[in-house]
Each structure stands twice: as structure tokens, then as C-alpha cells.
Amino acid sequence: MPPPLLTTLLAFLTLTPTATLAHSHLAHILINGQLYHGFDPRPNQPNDPSRVGWWTAATDDGFVTPANYTHPDIICHKSGASPAAHAPVRAGDRVHVQWNGWPMGHVGPVLSYLAGCAGLEGDEAGCTGVDKAALRWTKVDDSQPVLEFVEGAGINGGVPGQRWASDVLIAANNSWQVAIPDGLAPGPYVLRNEVIALHYAAEEDGAQNYPLCVNLWVEGGDGGMELDGFEATEFYREDDPGVWLNVTAGLSSYVVPGPTVAVGATPVPYAEQTISLFEAEGTPVVVLRGTETVPFSGGAAPTAEPRARGRYDRN
Ligand SMILES: *[C@@H]1O[C@H](CO)[C@@H](O)[C@H](O)[C@H]1NC(C)=O
Ligand SMILES: *[C@@H]1O[C@H](CO)[C@@H](O)[C@H](O)[C@H]1NC(C)=O
Ligand SMILES: *[C@@H]1O[C@H](CO)[C@@H](O)[C@H](O)[C@H]1NC(C)=O
Ligand SMILES: [Cu+2]
């Protein structure tokens, strides 16, 4: 057996040929060909004020580790903070999230969650003024089957013989489609798209979670779907079999961490995880009084008028 340092070096060379350049962020989202901007956390990036991607302090394009699964950083990445704008989408549409590249070696699941902002304190401006700790999440996609055993897969820097959801994402030009459930009630929501990279997950605290959030303004849903109420700080445990495992030690299956996908959610199958074409810049909206929207018009978010009635008496 090689000494630990050599093992680590070998694992590094095999699995993460571009580790120093690797990591990523959610660059943008496409909805029916309309493009909305994510947030680029790297220093000196010209971030679009109309972006719908949450601000984060992950200036290295990096990740949150299992030691921080109960820390608010797991909600929407390091010091995550909501932007003013929301991307308009109709229930039943697909939101196509695109990462700024994804390294082959960063194998793992692609998980998607939605949290409604209506009814929470600060919801006058949609998700913008809501305390992220108050968000309650519903898992709408866990990228099943996540891990398939395919001859010839993973030979380009992944894990030989394994095809992961992350490989499907890479093949679709680093993107993933999330179906917005038909049964969602209209209103403001945060979409949390997370890739968990497992290349170092054989080490304690070695998994890498990349949880990135975007704001959506959902229209047209019938509200028939029952939402779950999970807190992001309760999704995962450091010793979950889906986050503390050795992907090169002859895996025979993979257990997806976190809650199960809610009834009424319709994940997009691998066969339909394809490249989405940009047609035009979308027009994001800013939410007013919790119930109306106006097109984003630059600068800061308009100050929302506080509502006279109580916070939870939305009808
Ligand atoms: C958890 O996150 C905080 C804030 O980013 C960081 O300072 C701390 O080192 C992290 N803790 C661990 C154990 O990774
Ligand atoms: C992949 O995505 C990039 C960035 O959005 C885009 O410029 C490029 O045209 C896309 N490639 C294909 C083949 O769609
Ligand atoms: C993971 O499994 C591989 C293959 O069995 C082994 O070489 C490596 O030492 C293991 N890593 C850890 C940290 O146990
Ligand atoms: Cu990385």
C-alpha cells in the first residue's frame, strides 16, 4: 500500500487534474431561451446589477464542507445574500442553470430545491429582504440515477467506469434543467441548485458542496403541490453515506443525501438534459408589496412599502 501522501497525490492527479483552476459558480440561467445572470464571486468581476444570482463571499469559486452543514453558509453558499431581481418563470417551465464550467474530477450529485418567500417576514420585496434562515425547502430534483456504471465512462479525468450526474451536467455544456412544478403557488421563490463534489469525500470533511441560489418569480401554478419544510442547515450530516464515501473504492451504489424529492416534482430525465440555446436577454423583475412586479430598472431595488396588515395574513 502506498504511503498516505503518495495516495493523496495519486488521487489528486487522477481525479483533479485542474484542481487549482477548478471550482465553479452558477454563471447564468436560461428560461425558454431568455438569459438571466448569476453572480461571479471572483474578485473584480463586472456583475450585472440585474442579476438573479445570490451574492456570495466565495471569492475562490470554492465550496462549503461538511463541517459547515449546520452553518448558515450551507443555505446559499458563503455569506449568501439575495439580489433585488427575480427571473420570471411559469409553473411547468424548465429553468436551465448553467455553471461556469465543471471539472470532470468533481464527481457527484446535482440537487435542486425550492423555497417560497411569500408569507415570510420581509416578503414585500419578494425574496430580496427575507432572512435566509427562515427559508423552508422542498427538494424537486436529486438527479437520479446519480451514479451509473458505464464501460469507458470517466476515463477523461473522472472515475473510470462511473457516470455521475455531474458528467451529465458537463455533457450538457455544464448545465442542468430544473422543472418548476405545475402545482407551485404563484409568487417569489429561491431556487437552490447544488452540486456535491465527492473526489475528496473519502477523507473526513472532504466533500465539497457548491450550493448556489437564484431568485424566481413564479406565475401560473395552481398551488396544488404540498411543499416540504426543510431547513438547509438540517439537510445533511457529516457522516451521511452520500457525503463520506470513497468513490474510487469500488462503489456499487450511491445514496443521495438530504430529503427525498417531493411528490408533485417532476425531475428532468438525463435524456432531456441537453444544451439550451440563448435567444435573448431576459427582463428580470423586482417584487413590490409582495404581490406585484415591475421590470428591473437598474440601480438598487425600489424600497418596498411596508404592508399595514400582519405578516402572515396573506390571503
Ligand atoms: C465554516 O464557515 C466559516 C465561514 O465561512 C469558516 O470561517 C469556518 O472555517 C468554516 N468551518 C469549518 C469547520 O470549515
Ligand atoms: C456553451 O455555453 C457557453 C456559455 O454560455 C456558450 O457560449 C456556448 O455557445 C455553449 N456551447 C454550445 C455548444 O451550446
Ligand atoms: C479510497 O479507495 C482507494 C482504492 O481502494 C484507496 O487507494 C484509497 O486509499 C482510499 N482513500 C482513502 C482516503 O481511504
Ligand atoms: Cu474544485
From TrEMBL:
GO terms for biological process: cellulose catabolic process. Its cofactor is Cu(2+). Residues 1-22 form the signal peptide. GO terms for cellular component: extracellular region. Residues 23-249 form the Auxiliary Activity family 9 catalytic domain. Residues 306-315 have a biased composition (Basic and acidic residues). InterPro entries: AA9, AA9_LPMO. Residues 296-315 are annotated as: Disordered. One of its GO terms (molecular function) is hydrolase activity. Its EC number is 1.14.99.56. Transmembrane segments: none annotated. Keywords: Carbohydrate metabolism, Cellulose degradation, Copper, Disulfide bond, Hydrolase, Metal-binding, Monooxygenase, Oxidoreductase, Polysaccharide degradation, Secreted, Signal. It is found in: Secreted. It catalyses: [(1->4)-beta-D-glucosyl]n+m + reduced acceptor + O2 = 4-dehydro-beta-D-glucosyl-[(1->4)-beta-D-glucosyl]n-1 + [(1->4)-beta-D-glucosyl]m + acceptor + H2O. Belongs to the polysaccharide monooxygenase AA9 family. This is lytic cellulose monooxygenase (C4-dehydrogenating). It comes from Chaetomium fimeti.
